[in-house]
Amino acid sequence: MKTLCLGGAGKICRESVYDIVQYSDYDKITIADVNEEAGLEVVAWLDDPRVDFIKADVYDREKTVNLMKKYDIVLDGTTISMNDHTTSLIFESGVHGINLNGCSSEWDFDKRFKEIGKTFVPGVGMTPGITNLMTKYAADRLDTVDTIRISHGAFRPIAFSPSIAETTRIEYDPNLETRLVYEDGKLVQVPPFARPRDIELPEPFGTLPQYIIPHAETLTLGKSLADKNIRLIEVRGTWPPKNMRLIRELYDWGFLRNDKVRIGDSEVGVLDVISSYLIQSEEGQKTDLYGYALHVEVTGIKEERLVQYILTHTHPKSDGSVEGWEELRAYTRCVGIPMGIGAQMISKGLVKGTGVIAPELAFSPEEMFAELEKRDIFVHKQVNVLTEKGKT
Fold it and tell me: 158-162, 221-225, 245-249, 338-342: lowest mean pLDDT where?
């Protein structure tokens, strides 16, 4: 079994590769990236005879497709803006695929992947990804579902990589049409910083205000759990408070529109300048607290009782007390590990069906949670009975 890891030199995708090196029986694991220096650095770090590097430019279509054809599955760790293109390459190569984001047009390829008998699972990180499976776990134990509220805290520097800077820009883009909530069978567009809600995350992260963000869970869960009569799906998120204050000010002052400004003889987008500064500055590369925190609340009816499930997750501290989880790796490992596990599940035939499959339909929540636990990532479950039988 062979896997090609597209964008595998990135800070997050390399953690997916690290997980595959640790836990899989793949014969060959190839890092494919346009950044040769970073790719060779990852190969040296992994120090495994199965791992090699090849320089790959995904915009050289023919060369990239011919490369992919030599493998059984492609892990796509490229940025959101590239995922439409890279998904088309994976389809054309005729292999299985998986990616981190799930926020592009991967779903348009469903029929085509079915026709070639291959599986593609988009959005297998923490959120989307593990949050989908947390929701599915709760929904499976309810007769009907009223509300799904998914929240997360991503505690990382605001621009430790170009892809993270891009994600930050996209989620609060004032013109973004895909910042949606699901209400009574309809998708409703909302502006940045909509519907604030204080969410209690596991320690050491605490209670913080969170706002609606554009994530794939809103789109997929309404379809995959259609038999549960869901009334409301909301997905919220937050970054470190300092990051959120900056994004709010950029929004209030109109910088997030990325209007063009003239500097001498040049015309540039004002947000492009700010993003470039953050990527190159010390302030953009550090934060006070690192890690990831999920909070999923699902409320519905079970045997005439109103029941609430709250699922959270924890991981080793980022303070250096646990080797391999120091500082930024407490964040990047959380995001990257699920894609590594998902790829291994696809390769083992644990995903039933072909086509483009949402994470909550592709994987068993219990199996995924068990695999996460092997990596010291724990999913915690709390069940609250809100009304007794026969009461309203």
Answer: 158-162
CATH value at residue 166: 3.30.360.10
Residue of 159, 133, 101 whose CA lies nearest to 313 = 133
Query: Which of 96, 122, 148 is where one domain is finished?
Result: 122
- C-alpha dist (Å) from residue 371 to 233, 235, 246, 337: 27, 25, 37, 10
173 vs 55, 167, 321, CA distance in Å?
Answer: 32, 10, 38
Q: Do 278 and 248 belong together in one domain?
A: yes
- The residue range of the domain holding 200 is 130-333+374-387
Q: Torsion angle, CA of 137/141/145/148, rounded to 10 degrees?
A: -30
**What does pLDDT average to over the chain?**
95
Average pLDDT over residues 85-114: 94
pLDDT of residue 311: 98
In the numeric block, the tokens 């090609």 are attached to: 4
Q: Classify residue 359: in a domain, yes or no.
A: no
103 and 33 in a common domain: yes
Cα angle at 179 between 177 and 183, to 5 degrees?
Answer: 110
Please write the tens of the pLDDT for every residue from 278-312: 999 999 999 999 999 999 999 999 999 999 999 99
Is residue 136 within 8 Å of 360, Cβ to Cβ? yes
Asked whether residue 348 is assigned to any structural domain, the reply reads no
| CATH number of the domain within which 66 lies | 3.40.50.720
SS3 303: coil
Domain count, the chain: 2
